[in-house]
Amino acid sequence: MKKLVLFLVITLLLPVSAFAWDKCYQPDTNGKINFNKVTSIELLGWKTDLEGNVRANGTAIDLGSEVSIGSENSAGFRISHVLNHKASLELSYIKNDHSGYTTKTFTFENKTYKPNAHMSLQNSWFDLAYAHNLTRSKQADKEGREVFYLDGLFGVKFSNAEIKVTGNDTTVGAAYIEENWDETFPVPYIGLAAGGQLADNLWLKGYLKYIKVNAGGADALHNDYGINLALRLNPNHKDTEWFVELGYRGVKYDIEKDNDRANLRYSGPTFGAFARF
Predict the structure, then answer these.
(1) Residues 122-175: tens digit of each pLDDT
(2) Domain 2-276: CATH architecture, name and number where available
(3) H or E element, residue 5
(4) Where would a tag sit more exposed on the chain, N or C end, judged by fewer CB atoms within 10 A?
(5) 8 A C-beta contact, residue 151 and residue 194
(6) Rounded to the nearest 5 degrees, what angle is found at the Cα of 13, between the Cα atoms of 8 and 16?
(7) Backbone dihedral region of 16: left (phi > 0), alpha (psi from -120 to 50 degrees) or beta?
(8) Domain residues of the chain, as ranges?
């Protein structure tokens, strides 16, 4: 059953890291862009629904119909710093915690559980990302207006994940049993991020992260996308800028090896508040 644990960990440890609006392009007196170094600090959240299924050693578990996992709120923080006109760095942290009760007999870590066993899936990670600017507008259409940009993303998540199952076994005595597993390891990714200003105090931004690998006889696909609107709260302030943002995020994982498979999908609204100075 180690395969199931490993697949669940890989598929559950990656969700939720918002790539926020960090660029500050302000036109000079001639209308040309004057790039400013910027630091941003953000508190972020994601209300997630978890769907999908896993299959291991011939036992399939549908997380939608066979485990009572509902929507969960996740919280974290993000710190980013623009290094120069081509590069920026981001460090973020977040923790997810989903749990529910099984509706059928299943096996985990060589122990067979009766229905109504409790399953919890927790994961947390530090995400270090590097953004390299690919293109951006050279002029603003009006004073104070930021501009379009497109960045390439290169990152790695240092992730910790834990799966815990508690309940009664299927023997005559129906003894109480418990098993858990945890692991920490890095996961790399690549992607794109883009943004543009819609109005004086309103920005639109989005990103896509992707990785597809075949290693050790396993096929793994991961994609992660998000789109957000950011509203500035203090447009007349000259120093620190305050924003709130709302958006939507979707994450999919499909990992298969031999006869084991994990196909999971996270989706839901995102929200946050950040300061840029």
Answers:
(1) 777 788 889 998 987 765 555 555 568 889 999 887 767 677 888 888 876 778
(2) Beta Barrel (2.40)
(3) helix 2-12
(4) C
(5) yes
(6) 135
(7) left
(8) 2-276
